[in-house]
Design goal:
about 190 residues; alpha+beta; Arc Repressor Mutant, subunit A; 2 domains; three-stranded antiparallel sheet; two-stranded antiparallel sheet; 8 helices
């Protein structure tokens, strides 16, 4: 590592900002520490410092701890401006996809037959879509007749909804008699 980036455990905010910018997705403390050749404590201090610097200078960016890592993100007040520049290739999730994703998020690990019992319709197409978008993944097989596949959410799910972990999901609303998950999406 070049001497102008790190002096006696000091991590340059500029070097850290560059790494986070080019990553474009959450980066763990460990990965940042390895890239900078310092320990995680030095990186964590530099992250907090960079977070304060971005805020103090009124930057259009913010530094967020999200999905188990750190990521540069547009400040909410500039989201509309950025949206005018960018066109999202990925369409929004359908109501069926949001319902299925909500069920998985709150009941994981869960099987397709369990999801279908709650929703009352086939889940195969929606599960395929959610898997392709990397919002869910297979997490083994359930020790039950037919050994159905278990599904769980992924770090991309956390990133998509802007939460650090599943504890930040809103409270689950259940209709007690049929155990049907409400149509409230996980975005609030």
């Amino acid at each position: 590592m070049s001497g102008n980036l790190i002096l006696e455990g000091f991590v340059s905010e500029a070097a850290l900002e560059c790494l986070l910018f080019v990553a474009g997705e959450p980066v763990t403390l460990l990965d940042l520490a390895k890239a900078l050749g310092v320990d995680e404590i030095a990186v964590e201090g530099a992250l907090r410092s960079l977070q304060a610097t971005l805020s103090e200078r009124g930057s259009g960016l913010q530094l967020l701890k999200i999905a188990g890592g750190w990521q540069l993100s547009t400040r909410p007040e500039y989201a509309e401006t950025v949206a005018r520049l960018l066109t999202r290739s990925a369409s929004k999730l359908s109501r069926a996809a949001l319902e299925t994703l909500s069920i998985i998020a709150y009941r994981q690990p869960i099987t397709a037959p369990e999801i279908e019992a709650i929703r009352g319709v086939s889940a195969s197409g929606v599960l395929k879509t959610l898997s392709e978008r990397r919002l869910i993944t297979e997490a083994g097989k359930k020790m039950a007749l037919g050994r159905p596949t278990l599904y769980v959410t992924t770090p991309d799910f956390l990133h998509y909804f802007g939460i650090a972990d599943l504890s930040q999901l809103p409270p689950l609303e259940i209709d007690a008699p049929s155990e049907t998950v409400s149509a409230q999406s996980v975005t609030g």
